[in-house]
Amino acid sequence: MRRTDSVENTDTPDGAETSDDAEASDDAGTVREADPVTTTERDQARGARAGAAPVVRVAVPERSFVHDLRAVKIVLHRELIRYGRDRMRMVSGLVQPVLWLLVMGTGLSSLMTAGRGAGPAGTHVDLKTFIFPGVCAMTVMFTAMFSAGSIVWDREFGFLREMLVAPVSRSSIVVGKCIGGAMVATLQGAVILALAGLAGVPYDPVLLLELLGLMFLGAFALTGFGVMMAARIKSMQSFFALMQMALMPMMFLSGALYPLSGLPAWLTVLTRFNPLTYAVDPLRQAIFSRLALTPELRRTFDPGVTWWGWRVPVGLEIVLVLLIGLVLMGVAIIEFRRSE
Amino acid sequence: MPEDGTPAVEVAGLVRRFGAVEAVRGIGFAVRPGEIFGFLGPNGAGKSTTINMLCTLLRPTEGSARVAGFDVVRERDEVRRNIGLVFQDPTLDGYLSGEQNLRFHAELYGVPRSVLPDRMRQVLEMVGLWDKRGDRVQTYSGGMKRRLEIARGLLHSPRVLFLDEPTVGLDPQTRASIWEYIRDLRAAEQITIFMTTHYMDEAEYCDRIAIMDSGTIVALDTPEALKAGVGKDRVQITTDDDEAAIAALAERFGLAATMAEGAVTFAVASGEAFVPRLFAELGMPIRSVSVSRPSLDDVFMSFTGTTIRDAEGSSKDWMRMAMRGGRSR
Question: How many domains does chain A have?
Answer without folding.
Answer: 2
